Amino acid sequence: MTELARRTGPTARARVVESTADGDCTLEDQVVAEEPLEIRVAWPGAEARRAWVTMRTPGHDFELAAGWALHEGLMGLGDLNEVAYCTDEDLTEEQEFNVVTLRSSRPVDLAHRHDALSAGSSACGVCGKDSIGAALQTVRAPAWGGPPPRADVVRRLPALLREEQSVFSRTGGVHAAGLFSADGERYVVREDVGRHNAVDKVSGARLLAGEPVAGAYLVVSGRAGFELVQKAVAAGVGSLVAVGAPTSLSVHLAREAGLGLFGFTRAERTVRYA
């Protein structure tokens, strides 16, 4: 399941004009790359069909696709047989590394949560859902059975996440998500222009590595919107820790699901939503 080296990288070069009090200066800068990714799903007796299209930062595409399918309840931990870039002859050069196919060992009910023409952006939102009622029908993993969260560990998690944000350091234009143990051990960190894509990549990385998808803490670099709480619940993590604020709907779902939810997290302060 090795991704091919010819795919687009996570950054691109851009010529910019920087204006300061001393005048204008033309220079070359790096911006975060953003391209569409089409996720297709196939199973025995069924040809691959489109399940979702999202805008993402190229890189870790197989992880993104696998994590998305897990969070949406389309595939369980033992259902994924293969993940690969699509090799259809009619694909254009631009599409060649922007279409990923997941092959399931069992039939997948795409109509249950998504229709075949669903599309999304890199922005947060309740993607593919037709109503709030449908959105609240969240896929749920077994509740976290580990130790309760420790405030001192929670407060240092954003700094540990920041240490692995290499693309952000170069561009300032991506979000990050990371999975951590109860003691603050960093399992995996992923970056993407879409905060929900970053979370999908984290779970997908663990899934493809054969490691547990759940951990004590899922840490995100931005706000704790509903969709991120939804994915945390689906993965079975213990607590979601955000640098930014939660929304009313995310607080509601976290309470209902028994997910620990922390916002405004810094080294000196965090807020828990009980």
Q: What can be said about this structure in brief?
A:
It is flat and about 55 Å long.
Q: Which key terms come to mind for this protein?
A:
274 residues, alpha/beta, Cytidine Deaminase, domain 2, four-stranded mixed beta sheet, 8 helices, 26% helix, 29% strand, disordered N terminus
Written overview of the protein:
With 274 residues, the protein is an alpha/beta fold. The protein has a domain at 151-272: Cytidine Deaminase, domain 2 (3-Layer(aba) Sandwich), CATH 3.40.140.10. It has eight helices and twelve strands. A six-stranded mixed beta sheet has the order 8-7-9-10-11-12, with helices on both faces. A four-stranded mixed beta sheet has the order 4-3-6-5, with helices on one face. Helices cover 26% and strands 29% of the residues.
